[in-house]
């Protein structure tokens, strides 16, 4: 059934693409010639890939950012399958084709799979990035996490002889209250080469102050409960990259340090509509903090006996502290001040600590003895992961976990004919998980307006093993020299937030609470059963979620016109969803389908126009009867928009002036009880290149100061969160 659906869709796509005449002078470099490394762990031209990909180069990063320093904002507008930005530090509900996304820097994952924390993408410093490679669909080539897609940030490195320094300064503000919102940003990059050595050093810092919606109302600091907002922050980034090349070999070292803190003035009122600052309740907790360090070493040998060898070793020291929050209808479970107490603990905020280290070896071997152009990419990975999460007073809130992962993979590519290339591969991962015994702290559960005290629960850990074999197969057919049709089947998997399940031990739902506490909570309707305050991890352990993706599409570059269109279906028997109304996590059967389109045309030699379009919808087995019924749509925090459209134009004027305009439309969603409204936004940007004197840029986001409800932020907890009002950013960059 899946193949029939995709075959019909592919036929429609082929018919829809125009038979455009070639224009040899329109573009010197075809987009199909772009080289990416993320799709297959080896260098491949876009035209040879059986998946749909998006490559965002440095020129696009600068032109389309409109003064925003958040990668999420940029990617959400240029990548069709990625959800719109929720406009906070968190990546909550920012799904990729309705599923999870693997985020990497130079091929090293930044996710924390044992305890999912979505504050990743917004922490990456765009000043250090040369390009962004995005691969759509599920994949397991880099391990767990890429059930919806993969985003890989490729960092800069020194290229030219001598020293090259770039200084960037920026001031941004909300026009509703410039005086209280104006905020500075500055960065300095130094790069160059000295014979065989190359270096790149970057230091940046920025801050934010008050933020406002389109009506001039001050925005809340913590709209999504503990995860932070976009106001009152201080951030610093330091990045260093060193390289040495000697004939066929290259050695590389890099260090990346991200520090951020946020100190709200007020708690957040989650009962107001929309969510707003609670000006009657000063914030009393500790700051939100990010203090993460990433070390990476690389080695490349182009004359390896089996081809080209790439080895990457890494160590990630990740520290993420959340904000203090209180009990509310939107946050129905918090930690108590003492065992059996209904008073919220003053330490009701946590610190996630994740130490991850590993080594990856990849070999690219030619197989010309099979057929000219045939090749295989193969290798092995090892990852060590130790993850804990504690309250700020040191009490563990999840079972401390240590996991060792060993993976092996192979990816084969064979040109079957001059016009058809077959690709396929497999990966096998073996996991060894140790879960320590721990005591889940006492909590308070809000049930029908009553504060229900939940006593401590003991969780017995243990040692567990599991594995995940995954496969993929695809093909590319050259329709002409300018266009290809492609199709693929791929599998990816995620580890289903193991820590999240232990954090909710005995309190994952009303039924779970009654089964755990029994007669202790008889007054609240739990019956007279014997309580069971000792739980084994083996009884609550989630299973890895295996996702199957079927995709077919077209892409082409006819000089003045270029584009990619693809349709997909993804299925899973163990998909994971969070229910905001009950504060619970569950696994069930799922099916998601959608369509992605990117198209761009050179209307004239000076004017470029384009569009990014995405449609996605999905259902799941909501009632647990083993089948997906009509009306069982996935919650909004998985799919916050049914479709989105971004229309843009870029004009180059005389005197090195460039202007860009975008119209962004988000459909919202009305498939669940929470109806998310649609929104249309206008963004404008202009820059003047002054040669040696630098470059001056002006960016205006939400030009019309439209008041709207942010559908992605509102989907996280089922409460309306306003979107950001008009923002103006003035940027000056000089290189010498």
From TrEMBL:
Gene3D superfamilies in alphabetical order: TonB-dependent receptor, beta-barrel domain, TonB-dependent receptor, plug domain
Location within or outside the cell: Cell outer membrane
Coiled coil regions, renumbered to chain: none
Cleavable signal peptide: 1-21
Keyword Membrane set for record: yes
Listed InterPro entries: Beta-barrel_TonB, Beta-barrel_TonB_sf, EF_Hand_1_Ca_BS, Plug_dom, Plug_dom_sf, TonB-dep_rcpt-like, TonB_rcpt_CS
PROSITE patterns: EF_HAND_1, TONB_DEPENDENT_REC_2, TONB_DEPENDENT_REC_3
Ranges spanned by the short sequence motif TonB C-terminal box, renumbered to the chain: 719-736
Membrane association type: Multi-pass membrane protein
GO molecular function, one term: siderophore uptake transmembrane transporter activity
Location of the TonB-dependent receptor plug domain: 47-150
Keyword annotations: Cell outer membrane, Membrane, Receptor, Signal, TonB box, Transmembrane, Transmembrane beta strand, Transport
Chain ranges of the TonB-dependent receptor-like beta-barrel domain: 242-703
Biological-process GO terms, alphabetical: siderophore transmembrane transport
GO cellular component, one term: cell outer membrane
Entry keyword Transcription: no
Family label: Belongs to the TonB-dependent receptor family.
Protein known as: TonB-dependent receptor
Lineage of the organism: Bacteria, Pseudomonadati, Pseudomonadota, Alphaproteobacteria, Hyphomicrobiales
């Amino acid at each position: 059934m899946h193949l029939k659906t995709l075959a019909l869709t592919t036929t429609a796509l082929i018919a829809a693409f125009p038979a455009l005449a070639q224009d040899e002078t329109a573009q010197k470099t075809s987009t199909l010639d772009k080289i990416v490394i993320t799709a297959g762990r080896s260098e491949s031209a876009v035209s040879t890939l059986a998946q749909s990909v998006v490559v965002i180069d440095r020129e696009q990063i600068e032109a389309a950012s409109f003064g925003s320093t958040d990668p999420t904002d940029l990617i959400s507008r240029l990548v069709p399958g990625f959800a719109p930005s929720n406009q906070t530090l968190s990546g909550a509900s920012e799904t990729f084709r309705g599923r999870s996304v693997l985020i990497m820097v130079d091929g090293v994952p930044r996710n924390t799979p044992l305890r999912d924390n979505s504050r990743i993408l917004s922490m990456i410093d765009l000043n250090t990035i040369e390009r962004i490679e995005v691969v759509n669909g599920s994949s397991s080539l880099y391990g767990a996490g890429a059930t919806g897609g993969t985003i890989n940030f490729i960092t800069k490195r020194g290229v030219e002889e001598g020293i090259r320094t770039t200084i960037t300064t920026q001031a941004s503000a909300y026009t509703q209250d410039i005086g209280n919102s104006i905020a500075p940003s500055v960065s300095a990059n130094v790069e160059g080469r000295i014979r065989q050595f190359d270096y790149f050093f970057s230091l940046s810092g920025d801050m934010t102050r008050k933020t406002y919606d389109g009506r001039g109302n001050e925005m809340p600091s913590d709209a999504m409960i503990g995860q932070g907002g976009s106001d009152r922050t201080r951030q610093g980034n330091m990045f260093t990259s060193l390289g040495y090349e000697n004939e066929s070999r290259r050695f590389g070292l890099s260090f990346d340090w991200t520090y951020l803190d946020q100190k709200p003035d007020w708690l957040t009122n989650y009962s107001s509509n929309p969510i707003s600052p609670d000006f009657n309740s000063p914030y009393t907790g500790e700051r939100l903090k990010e203090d993460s360090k990433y070390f990476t070493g690389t080695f490349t040998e182009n004359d390896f006996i089996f081809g080209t060898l790439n080895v990457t070793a890494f160590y990630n020291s990740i520290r993420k502290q959340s904000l203090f929050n209180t009990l509310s209808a939107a946050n129905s479970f918090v930690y108590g001040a003492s065992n059996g107490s209904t008073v919220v603990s003053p330490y009701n905020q946590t610190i996630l600590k994740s130490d991850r280290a590993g080594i990856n070896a990849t070999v690219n071997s030619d197989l010309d003895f099979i057929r000219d152009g045939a090749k295989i990419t193969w290798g092995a990975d090892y990852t060590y992961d130790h993850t804990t999460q504690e309250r700020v007073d040191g009490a563990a809130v999840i079972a401390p976990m240590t996991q060792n992962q060993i993976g092996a993979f192979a990816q084969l590519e064979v040109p079957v004919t001059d016009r058809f290339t077959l690709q396929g591969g497999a990966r096998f991962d073996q996991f060894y998980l140790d879960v320590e015994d721990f005591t889940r702290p006492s909590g308070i559960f809000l049930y029908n307006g009553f504060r229900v005290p939940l006593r401590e629960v003991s969780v017995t850990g243990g040692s567990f093993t599991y594995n995940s074999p995954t496969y993929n197969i695809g093909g590319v057919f050259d329709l002409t020299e300018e266009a290809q049709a492609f199709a693929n089947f791929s599998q990816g998997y995620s580890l289903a937030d193991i820590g999240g399940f232990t954090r909710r031990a005995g309190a994952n739902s009303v039924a779970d609470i009654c089964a755990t506490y029994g007669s202790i909570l008889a007054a609240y309707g739990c019956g007279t059963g014997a309580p069971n305050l000792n739980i084994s991890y083996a009884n609550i352990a989630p299973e890895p979620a295996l996702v199957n993706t079927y995709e077919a599409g077209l892409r082409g570059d006819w000089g003045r016109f270029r584009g990619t269109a693809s349709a997909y279906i993804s299925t899973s028997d163990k998909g994971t969803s969070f229910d905001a109304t009950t504060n619970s996590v569950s696994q069930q059967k799922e099916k998601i389908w959608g369509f992605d389109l990117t198209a761009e045309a050179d209307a004239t030699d000076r004017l470029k126009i384009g569009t990014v379009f995405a449609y996605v919808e999905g259902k799941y087995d909501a009632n647990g009867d083993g089948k997906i019924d009509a009306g069982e749509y996935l919650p909004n925090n998985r799919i916050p928009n049914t479709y989105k459209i971004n229309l843009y134009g870029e004009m180059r004027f005389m005197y090195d002036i460039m202007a860009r305009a975008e119209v962004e439309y988000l459909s919202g969603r009305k498939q669940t009880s929470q109806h998310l409204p649609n929104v249309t936004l206008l963004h404008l940007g202009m820059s003047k290149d002054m040669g040696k004197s630098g470059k001056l840029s002006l960016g205006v986001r939400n030009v019309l100061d439209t008041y709207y409800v942010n559908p992605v932020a509102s989907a996280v907890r089922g409460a309306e969160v306003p979107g950001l009002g008009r923002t103006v950013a003035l940027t000056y960059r000089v290189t010498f």
